[in-house]
Design brief:
With 417 residues, this protein is mainly alpha-helical. Helix content is 65%, strand content 4%. It has 13 helices and 3 strands; from the N terminus they run βββααααααααααααα. It has a 3-stranded antiparallel beta sheet with strand order 1-2-3, with no helix packed on it.
């Protein structure tokens, strides 16, 4: 039937809210308790962070590799300083000699500054790289996607007033527009996921070509599925269906003021379709490859230099006895590696927020909110407060047929008898 039945369950904890699909068990975080996380909650969170998939396990493998590189740098520099004679040697370092103390501190500063210059440059480039992507993510969610959802709500609010009755025809009209609206949102997620589907396995995992889930949920009928087969713009095509259906109702005399309604509905459908096209354009548009390659390369080179510098400072700390320098370098290396790699990963994740990562947009929650909101409109249209108080039916404007203008040149000439 036309009744939509989304198959997911809602899980609520003190720290976050998740929706879990009953079809495949995938879950997405739809909101987290920022107040608790700012206190001790950050210690108990793993899913949806850079320390879990998809960032992990690479972020840990890279960190381990850099620590091993630092140890290799330490081994080479230590053996070189021990067996290779140079004019400056720290093997006979004297803590009491202030000259030698200043010399070792000066060398430490020179070595540390080697990475500091590159760190400043990388931080600037990485900041621009991520900030612009966050702005695009915000625009996709709060302007483009929300614009589509608002259009669905607006149409259903209009129908709740035009068709307030409980007749089968009224119910079918309202549920069909609601179903098509939610269907377009679901298809938008599938269309956006195609962008980052690099092989057949990805397409199957992300469900790009499989529409059976939409049929199971009652959002799509079998004959409609055939119409979407091999269709390149499925989410946009649904809005053509909606516009055409409203046009039919106007011609059939089911709507009041049909000409004005026709123009208004066509405009709203076009806005929603344009928003979907803009979303897909945003998702498809990447930074220039040369720019992304430069930023990522600079980050990787910085981390390698940090590891090499850390190894050399290990040698200085061994010869001079300042072993706490080793501890600080290990801490710096861990923090810098996690931070820089996490920023790159976050940028990549939010470039296309319609995928199946735990913190991507949830099509399930968007669909459920739209269904609940619009059905509340339908219920309100059937029983407004004045109708119960006055014991009357809800007001409804009488439907009208379109007044057609007849062009005299197209009139048939009357045949003589």
């Amino acid at each position: 039937g036309d009744r939509v039945n989304l198959r997911f369950r809602y899980k609520l904890t003190n720290l976050r809210r998740k929706v879990i699909s009953e079809r495949d068990g995938t879950s997405k975080v739809v909101r987290f308790n920022e107040s608790r996380m700012a206190k001790f909650g950050w210690l108990t969170v793993l899913q949806g962070t850079v320390f879990a998939k998809p960032s992990a396990p690479f972020i840990w493998i890279q960190l381990l590799s850099l620590i091993l590189l630092a140890m290799l740098s330490f081994a080479i520099s230590y053996l070189a300083s021990k067996y290779w004679y140079t004019s400056v040697s720290w093997r006979d370092y004297d803590h009491e000699d202030l000259t030698q103390v200043w010399e070792v501190l000066d060398e430490f500063k020179v070595v540390a500054d080697t990475a500091q210059v590159l760190t400043t440059l990388v931080s600037f480039l990485l900041g621009l790289y991520v900030t612009k992507t966050v702005d695009i993510w915000w625009n996709i969610r709060h302007e483009l996607l929300q614009g589509v959802l608002n259009t669905i709500d607006s149409m259903c609010a209009r129908l709740s007033v035009y068709f307030p009755g409980n007749t089968k025809e009224d119910e079918e009209a309202k549920e069909t527009i609601l179903r098509y609206g939610v269907l377009s949102v679901k298809l938008l997620f599938k269309d956006a996921r195609e962008v980052d589907s690099w092989n057949i396995r990805d397409r199957k995992r992300l469900g790009c070509d499989n529409l059976s889930d939409l049929i199971d949920e009652g959002l799509l009928h079998s004959h409609e599925k055939e119409l979407l087969k091999d269709c390149p713009s499925r989410a946009q095509v649904v809005w053509v269906w909606i516009a055409s259906l409203f046009t039919k109702w106007c011609l059939d005399g089911r709507l009041p003021n049909p000409l004005e309604n026709q123009n208004t509905i066509l405009e709203e459908c076009n806005v929603a379709r344009n928003n979907i096209a803009m979303i897909l354009a945003r998702v498809n548009t990447q930074y220039p490859m040369s720019y992304s390659h430069l930023v990522i390369s600079m980050v990787k080179v910085l981390l390698i230099i940090q590891a090499l510098v850390a190894g050399y400072i290990f040698t200085l700390s061994v010869w001079t006895g300042y072993y706490y320098w080793m501890c600080t370098q290990i801490v710096y290396l861990i923090i810098w590696t996690i931070f820089h790699q996490a920023m790159i990963d976050i940028k990549e994740h939010i470039t296309n927020p319609f995928r199946d990562n735990p913190t991507d947009f949830s099509e399930m929650i968007q669909a459920a909110r739209t269904l609940n909101t619009c059905r509340a409109f339908f219920k309100a249209g059937k029983a407004p407060p004045y109708a119960r108080k006055m014991g009357c039916n809800p007001a409804a404007l009488p439907p009208q047929l379109i007044v057609r203008q007849i062009i005299s040149s197209r009139l048939r000439k009357r045949q003589p008898h």
